[in-house]
Amino acid sequence: MTLQQARNSNIDPLALDETEEEIIDQEQRDTWDSEPLSQIPFKILQGHSEAVSGCHFCFDDARIITCSHDGTVKLWDIPNCTPVCTFDGGHTSPITECCIRSDNKRLITSSWDKTVKAWDVETAKVLWTAHLAGLVTSCDISLDGKFVAAGSDVENGVLIVDATNGKYVSKLKDHHLSTVTSCRFDPDIQRVASVSADKAVKLWDMIAQKTTITLMNKHSNVVSDCCFSMNGRFLCTASWDKTLLLWDIKTGKFRSSGPVILSNGHEGSVSSCVFSKDASVVVSGAYDRTVSIWDTEGECKKLTLKGHQDWVMDVAVSTDKNWILSSSKDCTIRLWNIQKSDHIRAVIETRRVMGLKIIQCEECQKPFCISQLIDADVITTCVFCRLASPTRNIFPSPPFS
Which of 89, 208, 226, 255 has a C-alpha 20 to 30 A away from that of 327? Predict the structure, then answer.
């Protein structure tokens, strides 16, 4: 069964009526489990022997790529939830992160063995290896597939290499005051964001070859991860201080009003974060073994997914926002079906308490949240359609720091 077939199936795995669950046949019981309280169906993928440090959807959300401290990367078939290919023998130490090129032909991995490697997805062979001075904590590939960025614990730096051959393009030595925990290209491939154990967030300009934005003293502990929205406007940062911050980067609004704070979603340090493609949702994973789903319009948590037996190391969300992926130190990956989560009582109650209501955007026809105090006749389009209007489609570059 494909993702599309699952979505079109007559079975509603998210139905709240317990009597409907009783009529699901044994085959369907074997296919989907669900936590009694969350009522969110999920599949557990098992195949790695150690902590699963990274996970991503790929091949138009039909497959999953994961990496692990067992030194392997696995490509999974979603319908069967089984690995179809294992990338092995390249790294000699735990793999910290993996990312796949948008055309699904190249895979990038980083490792504690002080290397970054590029793999041919079809043959599972290593194409090139870049050597760094210290443990490589993270990696990312630009949207156009031309550059790879990697963060390191030695020299507290970020390395940018040519994705074709692994040759150095830029080396940002002493970019931070402590270990770089994550680095990400913006969708326009103009900046590289990096976060660090020094609690700072930095944006390095690819064209100007200098740091243009430095954000200090907003997180009170290690900043563990960061991600850009697909329109490049927002940067989300996750921290061990148990919060996430949303920064309006393109407009520079953060300079006057600061970031939007997403809090009270986790009881432990937040380890990972990711935007949905339309930026209406942020998903985060944490040391408290949970996954939180946040409504960016309402600036509140919608839902918590529980079930992992150890801390959640990475999260991902499908293009249509119907599926959440989480990888954990418990050596498993979970695929969650949240297609109808808005109908869960806990989510409905959250909207009521927060004073939110859902209306349909007149332009994109997608639902979005607004405060019940706001007249729905005044705001009829979501923030993303408003930003895309002809009068607001160009954002000024933020001033240099």
Answer: 89
